[in-house]
Backbone:
């Protein structure tokens, strides 16, 4: 039981770091909060502690503002969910708890990226969006890092030359265990509708058009 609770605490520590980072999109933040409350409720159950009833957003129900019937239904629903969770855990093979002996290492990791140059003949300004991508699940697993690149081959903010750096934070052991992670750069052209337009009276300035994409396996 100690090893089981220990693995839960490692998960909660990792998820807490992600919540405090303030970098998660709203939908992922809501999903992670639900995972945290579900893990806490499950841990309370196996430790024979009191069951906490919550609303659909994971917030603790206030008994002074909630009717007795609503509290009963919430308690019944929470009990059923936890019971199903326990059955699922018992049906699985016992995990290798040696993988959780991470006391000497940090539960979260970071990736440091230094953008030295961008070489691509566009002829106009561009926006570069860099992010981490999981090809197996076809999903982006980080926030975008934006670099505005000028048409002359330099950053729009010239003082950022040789200083374009970003740290992708709060990468957990789950991220490191992915089969592959790509650093993806999406290129967006900012300017005319068509690069062939030459008469300034015939085209509109400032249009954002997809131009290209590049990727590198980490």
Residues:
């Amino acid at each position: 039981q100690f090893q089981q609770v220990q693995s839960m605490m490692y998960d909660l520590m990792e998820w807490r770091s992600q919540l405090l980072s303030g970098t998660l999109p709203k939908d992922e933040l809501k999903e992670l909060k639900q995972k945290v409350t579900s893990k806490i409720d499950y841990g309370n159950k196996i430790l024979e502690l009191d069951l906490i009833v919550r609303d659909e957003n994971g917030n603790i129900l206030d008994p002074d503002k909630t009717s007795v019937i609503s509290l009963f239904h919430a308690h019944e629903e929470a009990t059923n969910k936890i019971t199903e969770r326990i059955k699922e855990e018992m049906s699985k093979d016992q995990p290798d708890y040696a993988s959780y002996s991470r006391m000497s290492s940090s539960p979260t990791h970071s990736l440091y990226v230094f953008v030295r140059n961008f070489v691509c003949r566009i002829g106009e300004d561009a926006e570069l969006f860099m992010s981490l991508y999981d090809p197996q699940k076809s999903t982006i697993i980080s926030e975008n890092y934006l670099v505005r690149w000028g048409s002359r081959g330099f950053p729009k903010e010239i003082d950022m030359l040789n200083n374009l750096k970003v740290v992708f934070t709060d990468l957990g052991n789950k991220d490191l265990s992915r089969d592959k992670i790509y650093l993806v750069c999406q290129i967006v052209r900012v300017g005319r509708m068509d690069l062939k337009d030459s008469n300034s009276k015939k085209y509109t300035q400032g249009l954002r058009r997809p131009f290209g994409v590049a990727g590198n396996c980490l």
